[in-house]
Specification:
215 residues; Trefoil (Acidic Fibroblast Growth Factor, subunit A); three-stranded antiparallel sheet; 17 strands; 41% strand
Length: 215
């Protein structure tokens, strides 16, 4: 008897973001001339009505060297998985004020109280901070908030992604090659790791179907 797992198809990051951004808008056909509404126009115009998400989508994120996110002394640290310490999942919401083709997002802790932000040091070096700012407030204000925004995309492979600072183009969320170091901003080709695996909370909650096949 052989037991095999029928693995559920995993969406790429771009597919996840396409689905997330599509939740924001619905298309409704309309006829500009009400007297002609009984006729079908050759080209149907559309209007887009913005919808609002009630809560963020949760993602588990870890780098390609298998380091996960943990909270240590109010900082996000990347470390190998430790079952004695709860890892951090990230809450994600789209930024509607920026170009949706770049998949701009806000990222915060799961309770939404602290959000990732990009600033520069006194020497002008881009830095990543976790600041006390509610992600839902940022989302609902519908402003650019470049310092809180990241352009996200599938990167490296269909299973990995990257997060580029909107405030500092060319700088990405990164982890150190060494364990137990805070996450920060880095450039591709540098010493930091800028590619991440991900998992949605929906995927976590669903159990893979196990098929038993008798040989």
């Amino acid at each position: 008897m052989e037991i095999q797992k029928n693995k559920r198809y995993k969406k790429s990051w771009d597919e996840e973001m396409k689905e997330l951004f599509q939740q924001l808008r619905q298309q409704q056909a309309y006829y500009p001339d009400l007297n002609m509404s009984h006729l079908k126009p050759s080209k149907t115009p559309h209007v887009l009505e913005p919808l609002r998400l009630r809560e963020p989508r949760l993602f588990r994120i870890w780098d390609i060297s298998q380091k996960f996110l943990f909270m240590v002394n109010s900082m996000l640290i990347a470390n190998p998985l430790d079952f004695n310490s709860p890892e951090v999942w990230m809450a994600v919401l789209p930024n509607n004020a920026l170009d949706p083709r770049k998949q701009p997002i806000f990222m915060s802790l799961t309770d939404g109280s602290h959000t990732l932000s990009c600033t520069s040091s006194s020497e002008g070096q881009p830095q990543l901070h976790l600041v006390e700012r509610n992600i839902m407030e940022l989302y609902n204000q519908n402003q650019k908030f470049l310092d809180f925004s990241f352009y996200s995309k599938m990167d490296g492979s269909s299973e990995t992604c990257s997060f580029e600072s909107a405030q500092f183009p060319g700088w990405f969320i990164s982890t150190s090659s060494e364990p137990n170091k805070p996450i920060n901003l880095g450039q591709k080709g540098g010493t930091g790791i800028t590619l991440f695996y991900f998992e949605t909370s929906e995927r976590k909650e669903k159990v893979e179907l196990v098929i038993t096949r008798i040989i």
